[in-house]
Amino acid sequence: MITMSLLWLSLRFVLRDIRFRKFISMLAVLAIACGVAALVSLRIVSASARAAAGGVIEQVFVGELAIYGEGLCDIPEFIVHEVEDAPGVDRAIPMVFVTGYMEGVMAFIFGVKPEDLDYILECKVGRKFADGEENVVIVDELFAERRNISVGDTVFLKSQIGSIAYPFKVVGIANIGMKLQGLSAFSTYVVIPLKDAQKLIDKDGFVTMVMIIADKEWDTDQVEENLKTLYPNANILRREEVLGAITQIISVIDGLLSAVTIIGVAVAVFGTSNTIMSSVREHAREIAVLRAIGAKSRDVVVMFMLEATIFGAAGGAIGSLLGVMLAELLRRYIESSGILTMSLKLDPLVIALGFTSSIAVSILSSTYPVLKASRVKPLEVLKNE
């Protein structure tokens, strides 16, 4: 059993060793901190990106299901009422989605009915358009900020397949969630009345897709079967499929970034192992004296394992803090790049994982040099002295 006196003696030995070997000790702690920082930051950013991407999909893909056509805009608008009458369907939202240009920049244009806007967005400035309004637009806030666009301004919208640019009055500015960055300028998302979107592509009476909001009392699978019964040849997409595709992409990115974490952990392992091995060599005479006066191998193991634990704890604490700071920097970079708007999800379990893994890695990486220290033979060491 390890006594308090042994622990106290070991602690004094370790603190003295760290004090006289500051530079080497700092390098060991820094190596561990770098590995932990990489682990914590990447896990936080990954979880935050998943949540943000999920939020974007839920914002744009407002229903659990969507019926879409084969072409750009080939679903008759009149089927919306038929779909709403299908068992398990709470609401059907017709939408036109088309790519185009606004102010010379690529724009992703959503056409929706005024009564469906509550399902799509919330205006931060201005208002939503009302029933009967024409040539009005709600602009994404990031693009509005970049181009100094305000409520009341007039912008020009043109579809990629059209030749005419129509003037639209900005009535609202909203956070539509996801932004994309081109080579030289930002793309943007805009929302306009459904009739205006149909006019842009000369497809009056047709929509790109119909979003289906299922009744909460119905199972989504059953609602999908009911729709397939109603429209056997319809293309039906589930929101879970879109989320699954996004999750797969993020998982691939996670796998690539994990290589950075592995490199950091490898540096921490070699750094800690080298530091403890150096300490064992430098203190061979002291270990021999301790063994000669009755210290056991276990006592020597405790001393050097305690040193490794202190390195791990210090590196884990510093690395966890650096990891959170690095995650915030990565978040700002991602947002500034226009890829995704997200907030950090600080999971205590991730920070705890980083801290505990630093201690575990330090102890495991010190196993060989510590075992070597415990096998020091006093007579051989003292004879060489």
What does this structure look like?
This protein has 385 residues and is an alpha+beta fold. It folds into 2 domains: 4-57 and 245-384, no CATH class; 70-233, no CATH class. 55% of the residues lie in helices and 18% in strands. The protein contains 12 helices and 12 strands. The protein has a 6-stranded mixed β-barrel with strand order 3-4-9-6-8-7. The longest helix is centred in the C-terminal third of the chain and has 44 residues, at 239-282. The protein is elongated, with a radius of gyration of 31 Å.
Secondary-structure blueprint:
Elements: H1 4-20, H2 22-60, E1 65-68, E2 75-76, H3 79-84, E3 89-102, E4 105-112, E5 123-126, E6 136-140, H4 141-147, E7 154-159, E8 166-174, E9 188-193, H5 194-200, E10 206-207, E11 209-214, H6 220-230, E12 235-238, H7 239-282, H8 284-292, H9 297-336, H10 348-365, H11 367-374, H12 378-384
Parallel strand pairs: 4-9, 6-8
Antiparallel strand pairs: 1-11, 1-12, 2-10, 3-4, 3-7, 3-11, 5-8, 6-9, 7-8
| Average predicted local confidence, pLDDT | 79
Question: Strand order, biggest sheet?
Answer: 3-4-9-6-8-7
Shape: elongated
Q: Given the structure, what is the number of helices?
A: 12
Structural class: alpha+beta
- End-to-end C-alpha gap: 32 Å
Rg on CA atoms, Å: 31 Å
Helix percent band: 55-70%
Major sheet summary line: 6 strands, mixed, barrel
Domain count: the total is: 2
Number of strands: 12
Strand content: 15-25%
Low-confidence sequence ranges: 177-185
Order of helices and strands: HHEEHEEEEHEEEHEEHEHHHHHH
